[in-house]
Amino acid sequence: MLTSMGAQSASKDYLLERAYLEDASSALKFEDAQNKAYTPFNGLLSKGYSKSAYWVRLKLPGSRNPELKELVLRMQPSYLDEIALFDPAHPSAKRRVTGDRYGFEDSEYRSLSFNFVLPVDENPRYVWLRIKSTSTYLMQVRALDQKGAQVSDQVYETFAIAVISALIIFLIWSAIHWLMFRERVVGVFFIRQVVALILQQAQAEAQVVLETETVLVMVQDRD
Do 116 and 183 fall within a single domain? Predict the structure, then answer.
């Protein structure tokens, strides 16, 4: 926990504002969504399962610091189907999109999380995300500098490896025990471990997001 706290305090979040808009029709265009009334939120955006699309408006800081040229906009956990970015100040001919339906090789910043790389302007500006998913709407979004993004990657990867290692150990134990004694309860446990390994990515990432949120609150309280 102390290691995570140190890592997260080093991973400064540069976002100035967060707000969301529910699009029950899932049909709003950016030009329409841009001028709608948004609801502010802090920390996690949690909306459960829904057929709606969600728009998230984010305010980025301005800076003239030559060492802060780019920010990594990071979305976790990484089981949302599609996240599209709209940055009017820096239009792109190519649609900027990420999500678990898109290839890792197309990522703007390659990590186990979803990311966009954004230039830092001299003045603050807004960017928008459109989120559409068949899974639960649970998302934490942060804007990190390059160093902070690397620290966050290390924390997440360490946690994910620990979870996978524990699951594999129990899986091997249950398989050996079942082969030796053919106990039905152990066989059921073995099947559950296999399912747990298949689903571990979403479970581990959700835990990382929740732990991150707790750590950030603790750090803010200390400041």
Answer: no
Residues 46 and 90 occupy one common structural domain: yes
Q: How many residues does the chain have?
A: 223
- CA of residue 191 relative to chain centroid, distance: 29
pLDDT digits (tens, 9 = 90+) for 179-222: 887 777 767 777 776 776 666 555 555 545 554 544 444 444 44
The sign of the dihedral angle between the CA atoms of 221, 147, 55, 135 is negative
* Max intra-chain CA distance, the chain: 69
Q: Are both 182 and 199 inside the same structural domain?
A: yes
CA dihedral 185, 187, 189, 190 (to 10 degrees): 170
pLDDT digits (tens, 9 = 90+) for 51-83: 999 999 999 999 999 889 999 999 988 789 999
- CA–CA distances in Å: residue 44 to residues 41, 58, 139: 8, 13, 6
pTM: 0.71
Residues 69 and 170 in one domain: no
Structure tokens at 161: 């490896």
CA distance 62 to 120: 6
Compute the distance between CA of residue 75 and CA of residue 4 in angstroms, rounded to an integer: 18
Structure tokens at 17: 């504002």
Q: Give residue 2's Cα distance to chain centre.
A: 22
167 shares a domain with 74: no
Based on the fold, state whether residues 139 and 160 are members of the same structural domain.
Answer: no
Q: Please tell me whether residues 159 and 213 are part of one structural domain.
A: yes
